[in-house]
């Protein structure tokens, strides 16, 4: 590193599949993310710690799993400003810190302007927070205030209520210049354009898209031909129809999130348009950094909280452990990776590794127990494989995945999803309770139990430390 601490740009996009980017061979044109990957390292096997917004984001910042944080679902969970979270490290390291966009760390429906103190408690000095598309109907942010002033808010609310969760794509009534991803990107641009402090900066830009409801504004909603979209993975087949059942089975039977092939083509084309729009906003932010003359000393990390099925397995959204929902992008660019030709690794890594990596690259140390790992060794080649497996949790269930197997245990500790990842990467044959799989299943259950034991709760007062699903919505 140079004598001056590096500037850090931490970018998130909500519900962003890892395989959608053009640098990953996907159908969305993402030249700016591709350029970051070409100057850095792309992790092809990064898994979310929880395929749902609040649990994933709380775990991301805490470096701990849902069974430790207590954030299992999208309840009105409020992360305590007093919790040990890595984002506070940058203020301690002498950074000017800022956050623009979505956090989903302290509920989703409230007056976010009145709760700015929570963000300051999380370590961010300058903030402009939004919430997700649906929750924006019942929340106050600077963005919704602007929508009301410009006459968009009532039309937006009416449109959201009409859409519901139905997989149907058509443009938002909010025009492009005021659309939420443009708003968030412009916040980042304006902050960096005007920042004149003498401290290095840590800027977190967190886009609300491409999260459904597939409302990409014109003209981005027409950039892609639905007929040229990759077809979704068909629904898996059970080798043993009498296998145990779990949360995923309940979801797959809900009609409102079921999706046929024609619907999948339409929403995938819209989703690609949203990804390209976000990529262009990222490009504007990078151009601003370059205009400041600081690109040579800037670290960039891009990731997402979870993916989106977009028709895979016959349904949409997340709340499941299939590849499209589980696999998230992880791209890291540092001044030292520039010129190395764009590194790619299939080392298994987890979303909770993002924070420890950024703190390490900034020259800091996390001084409290947590389970995220710095990926610096993967970047510089000294520790190319810090993990042998990844864990993810949802609604009391746990998923374990290594190079050979993906297994999901229900709340009763029974295997109800089991895939041979080498021979069935698209997860088409569920081997749970299949004849001849008894010994492998026993071995996998032992591995899951060992992994959970290693990542056990660190203290009995976790709810008091991290917040509560019953915490009040208004501060």
Number of helices: 15
Number of strands: 18
CATH architecture: 3-Layer(aba) Sandwich
Low-pLDDT parts are 458-465, 468-475
Q: How many structural domains in the coordinates?
A: 1
Determine Rg (CA atoms, Å): 21 Å
How confident is the prediction overall: mean pLDDT? 93
Helix/strand-derived category reads alpha/beta
What gap, in angstroms, lies between the N and C termini?
41 Å
* Order of strands, widest sheet: 6-5-7-1-9-10-2-11
CATH superfamily: Alkaline Phosphatase, subunit A
CATH T-level topology: Alkaline Phosphatase, subunit A
Shape: globular
What oligomeric state do these chains adopt? single chain
CATH class: Alpha Beta
Largest sheet: 8 strands, mixed
User: How much helix is in the residues?
Assistant: 25-40%
Strand content: 15-25%
């Amino acid at each position: 590193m140079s004598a001056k601490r590096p500037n850090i740009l931490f970018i998130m996009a909500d519900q962003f599949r890892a395989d959608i980017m053009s640098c990953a061979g996907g159908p969305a044109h993402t030249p700016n993310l591709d350029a970051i990957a070409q100057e850095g390292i792309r992790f092809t096997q990064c898994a979310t710690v929880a395929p749902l917004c609040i649990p994933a984001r709380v775990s991301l910042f805490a470096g701990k799993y849902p069974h430790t944080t207590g954030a299992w679902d999208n309840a009105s969970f409020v992360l305590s400003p007093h919790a040990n979270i890595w984002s506070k490290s940058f203020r301690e390291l002498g950074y000017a810190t800022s956050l623009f966009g979505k956090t989903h760390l302290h509920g989703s429906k409230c007056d976010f302007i009145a709760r700015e103190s929570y963000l300051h408690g999380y370590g961010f000095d300058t903030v402009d927070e939004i919430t997700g598309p649906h929750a924006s109907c019942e929340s106050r942010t600077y963005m919704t205030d602007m929508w009301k002033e410009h006459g968009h808010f009532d039309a937006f609310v009416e449109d959201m209520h009409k859409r519901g969760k139905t997989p149907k794509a058509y443009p938002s009534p909010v025009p492009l210049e005021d659309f939420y991803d443009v708003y968030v990107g412009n916040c980042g641009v304006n902050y960096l354009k005007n920042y004149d402090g003498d401290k290095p900066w840590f800027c977190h830009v967190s886009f609300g898209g491409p999260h459904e409801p597939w409302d990409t504004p014109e003209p981005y909603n027409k950039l892609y031909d639905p007929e040229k979209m990759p077809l979704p993975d068909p629904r898996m087949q059970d080798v043993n129809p009498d296998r145990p059942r779990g949360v995923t089975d309940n979801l797959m039977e809900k009609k409102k999130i079921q999706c046929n092939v024609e619907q999948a083509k339409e929403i995938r084309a819209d989703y690609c348009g949203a990804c390209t729009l976000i990529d262009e906003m990222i490009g504007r932010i990078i151009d601003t950094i370059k205009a400041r003359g600081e690109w040579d000393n800037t670290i960039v990390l891009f990731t997402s909280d979870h993916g989106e099925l977009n028709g895979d397995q016959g349904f949409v959204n997340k709340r499941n452990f299939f590849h499209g929902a589980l696999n998230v992008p992880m791209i890291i660019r540092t001044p030292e990776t520039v010129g190395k030709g764009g590194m790619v690794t299939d080392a298994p890594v987890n979303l909770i590794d993002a924070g420890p990596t950024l703190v390490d690259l900034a020259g800091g140390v996390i001084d409290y127990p947590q389970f995220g790992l710095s990926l610096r060794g993967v970047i510089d080649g000294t520790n190319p494989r810090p993990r042998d497996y990844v864990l993810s949790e949802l609604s009391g269930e746990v998923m374990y995945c290594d190079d050979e197997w993906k297994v999901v245990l229900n709340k009763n500790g029974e295997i109800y999803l089991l895939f041979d990842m080498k021979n069935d990467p698209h997860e088409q044959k569920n081997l749970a309770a299949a004849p001849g799989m008894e010994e492998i299943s026993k071995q996998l259950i032992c591995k899951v139990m060992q992994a959970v034991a290693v990542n056990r709760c660190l203290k009995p007062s976790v709810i008091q430390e991290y917040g509560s699903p019953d915490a009040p919505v208004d501060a």
